[in-house]
């Protein structure tokens, strides 16, 4: 099995550039965003205002994914990647200029729109360029994704010594460099020359693709589960007496695991399972990740072991995500067929964004209510059940051969 450097070198230059681009995107994003709420609070803004700014950033990104994907299909992926990086440059620079609410709102909306432009476009470009090697390409892509998540907060923490404006300008500079890099080095992929359907008819085609909608619905739970590393697990760490350093250690553990095992793990899964089997088993592992928390919810663990179930949950949740992700991304591209890959990625991201929102609301409410009523294991059991149900749904789609793309003989890798 190849390691990350050898696998990276095996791809053509455009794929390598897209993978490096994703590391830069996450470096710039996580350099700034983890510290934004604290900065705004220190500037005297009310909690509801901070929530509004953060919420608008997420809503503008999730809500515009479908439009961003359609634009990538019609105008080309390269222009959308460049436009997204350029807008993120502007948005992050605005965050460093002032704490006036109108300017913060503008920065939040621009920053979110940027993600809606470059995310579907980058994935569509990568899928098209990789061809039959989509799974391997997305495995390396996730390594660089995790590397950016790991390096970003550390770089931001170091730059905070110079003030938050320095962090914002440094993050903006990262995206400015990425914009130039894509413009100079990324080849433009030719947009299909044949006449296209009107946008609304293309959207209708995606929304009425029953197999794809069923797959998207089955995968929603996986995003709700994976996002618990930012919600339920930090709340559990705080409940058990741990501090921010413990949470950061869990994030680092997750990122390092992804960097170190993703490529070899994907190769191992590819040699044994179909795409549907890999996705289903990854989801099952994500569901089982919450069992240690449920099993120890009523046990008086020794002080040194109280956080061990949280660490085990983080490891299993990360492993499940690593198993499923490359096969998931490749399956979406193949189900879309030619000409609508960006649109399908956009619709998929829109659905999963809704899942994250619903999952956060339910998980937060359950954690609070369960502790108050003495049902500490309940949230973890329900999260586990959601993951296993999602795994069963994908497995059923795979057995019925509904994860095939147009013209494919099978959904296997």
Description:
The protein is mostly helical and 413 residues long. Helices cover 78% and strands 0% of the residues. It contains 17 helices and no strands. It starts with a helix and ends in a 14-residue tail after the last helix.
Short key terms for the protein model shown above:
mainly alpha; 413 residues
Summarize it.
With 413 residues, the chain is an all-alpha fold. The chain is 78% helix and 0% strand.
Write the SSE topology:
Blueprint: H1 4-9, H2 13-32, H3 36-42, H4 47-75, H5 77-95, H6 101-130, H7 134-159, H8 164-185, H9 199-207, H10 210-226, H11 232-239, H12 244-270, H13 275-288, H14 291-295, H15 308-336, H16 341-372, H17 378-399
Flag low-confidence runs. Answer: 409-413
| SS content category | mainly alpha
Oligomer: single chain
Shape: globular
| Mean pLDDT reading | 90
- N-to-C SSE string, H for helix and E for strand: HHHHHHHHHHHHHHHHH
Write down the Rg. 21 Å
β-strand number: 0
Strand content: under 5%
The major beta sheet can be summarized as: none
- Our measurement of the CA-to-CA distance between the termini, rounded to an integer number of angstroms, reads 16 Å
Total helices: the number is: 17
Task: Name the helicity range.
Answer: over 70%
